Amino acid sequence: MKPGRLLGAAWLLTCGLGSANAAEFDYSRLAAIAPRMQQFVDEGAVAGAVVVVGNAGGVAYLEPVGFQNLESKQPMPRNAVFRIASMTKPITAIGIMILQDEGKLSVEDTVEKHLPEFKGQMLVERRERDRVTLTKPPRPITIRDLLTHTSGLPGGFPAGYSDLYFTRNHTLAEATIAQSQRPLDFEPGSKWSYCNAGIDTLGRIIEVTSGQPYEDFLRDRVFMPLEMNDTAFYPDENQLSRLAGLYGEKEKSSSLPTTCSLARPRMPDTRFPLAGCSRPAATWHNSIRRCLTAACTTSQNSATSASSAKPPPSR
């Protein structure tokens, strides 16, 4: 943890899948977690935290420390809501995989198959002072490239879009079109580079292939089935009252507004995969637990099916 930063943090310590019997946990050791986390609060490393420990059976330990709001010294509640920012990225990936399971797309599809604005995208061959030389890439970018941050898309935004996640003054469709007109920084699949624009593009692909707004799709197909009832792009008044404060560097003695990027904008359809959702720590644990359980069950079923499909050994 970087000293000199005051952050509202959700500490998620999720154990492996297994039975939820008490023998799996040493409760004397669990009891030592909160005092240790309190030291981070006392040292000014974090404003507060909610510690969650659990396994496939549920939550075994849930304890808040520190403050939800430093100015008012409001204690951190157990059900505090945290902005998860880029942890919305794996949730977006879940949406893509749901659509693949339904046959509406494949991760091997080119992006231009679903978003024609990406057709003819060029690649930066070299940059020389004020001159940029472009060339045709060896292949178009694919959905897999976007998921794995290997597309070559520039990670930032073009001129006029740099404050998009704060102002929300363009729709996801508009932002994606702007990104599609920028040349690639490197050949698709040739290297890894963290790319926010690529994840936003995935969000737009979800909209086009599902026929639903990005936010509605995640609510209907991910959040509600997993009972993530406190997870939202724009928290309501009740959730905002439980929202953990966001703080900048301690030396600057400044804090970001609690509702930073979370107040619902005037424009509709301005949800972005990078800008992120907000959720309580225990809800985050439960959603991970359910996903892991489902994944393990699917893997076991697939292994069983593959085994039963093998011809019997010859005698």
At a glance:
By secondary structure, this protein is of the alpha+beta class. Helices cover 35% and strands 16% of the residues. The strands form four sheets. Strands 1-2-3-4 form a four-stranded mixed beta sheet. The chain has a two-stranded antiparallel ribbon with strand order 5-10. The chain has a two-stranded antiparallel sheet with strand order 6-7.
Task: Describe the protein in words.
- The structure is a single chain.
- The protein is α+β, with helices and mostly antiparallel strands.
- Helix content is 35%, strand content 16%.
- Helix 3 (88-101) packs parallel to helix 8 (196-210), helix 3 (88-101) packs across helix 9 and helix 7 crosses helix 8.
Task: Give the helices and strands, then pairings.
Blueprint lengths: L7 E7 L12 H4 L2 H10 L5 E8 L2 E12 L4 E2 L5 E3 L4 H14 L9 H4 L8 E6 L2 E5 L7 H5 L16 H4 L4 H9 L15 H15 L3 H10 L13 H5 L4 E2 L7 E2 L21 E3 H29 L6
Parallel strand pairs: 1-2
Antiparallel strand pairs: 2-3, 3-4, 5-10, 6-7, 8-9
Helix pairs in contact: 3-8, 3-9, 7-8
What tags apply to this protein structure?
alpha+beta, two-stranded antiparallel sheet, disordered C terminus, four-stranded mixed beta sheet, 315 residues, 35% helix
The succession of helices and strands, N to C, reads EHHEEEEHHEEHHHHHHEEEH
Could you say which overall geometry the principal axes of the C-alpha atoms support? globular
Oligomer class: single chain
Largest sheet: 4 strands, mixed
Total strand segments: 10
Q: Strand portion, in percent?
A: 15-25%
Q: Biggest sheet: strands side by side, in what order?
A: 1-2-3-4
Percentage of residues in helical conformation: 25-40%
The mean pLDDT is 79
The low-pLDDT segments are 1-8, 10-22, 251-269, 295-315
Q: Which secondary-structure class do the elements indicate?
A: alpha+beta
